[in-house]
Write a structure and sequence with these properties.
By secondary structure, this protein is mostly beta strands. Helices cover 9% and strands 28% of the residues. The chain contains one helix and eleven strands. The chain has a three-stranded antiparallel sheet. Strand 1 and strand 2 form a beta hairpin. The protein is globular. The termini are far apart. 12% of the residues are buried.
Length: 115
């Protein structure tokens, strides 16, 4: 490899390798293209699972059951989250929010859709 590959956008581990046109992270299994990462970095825009841009104060709906780490709670599909705040979170968690019955937490934008 003549140039340095970027770290994984999911887990930020520096062990990515090339597999054809894709970059692959052996730590978390995430696959992406350098083109995808360049587009995302250039736009600086956080989008939902369907590519719709998100902004502070938006309402979103969870599209997948999400286990709450460190507890037995689960955020169910269809849970509506109001008044989100976009953040530069830990390991890709780019939404700060408060979910009724659970409390404050961070979500990944790939698991929500704009309502």
């Amino acid at each position: 490899m003549t140039d340095t590959l970027p770290p994984c956008p999911e887990c930020n581990e520096p062990y990515a390798y090339e597999q054809g046109a894709l970059l692959v992270c052996p730590m978390c299994g995430h696959e992406w293209t350098a083109h995808d990462q360049a587009d995302e970095a250039a736009s600086g825009q956080i989008t939902d699972a369907h590519g719709t841009p998100l902004a502070d104060g938006d309402s979103v709906t969870v599209i997948k059951d999400l286990k709450v780490k460190g507890s037995s709670l689960v955020v169910k599909v269809g849970t509506k989250v109001k008044n989100i705040r976009l953040a530069d979170g830990f390991r890709g968690h780019d939404i700060d929010c408060k979910i009724d019955g659970i409390g404050p937490m961070q979500l990944k934008s790939e698991f929500v859709k704009k309502s």
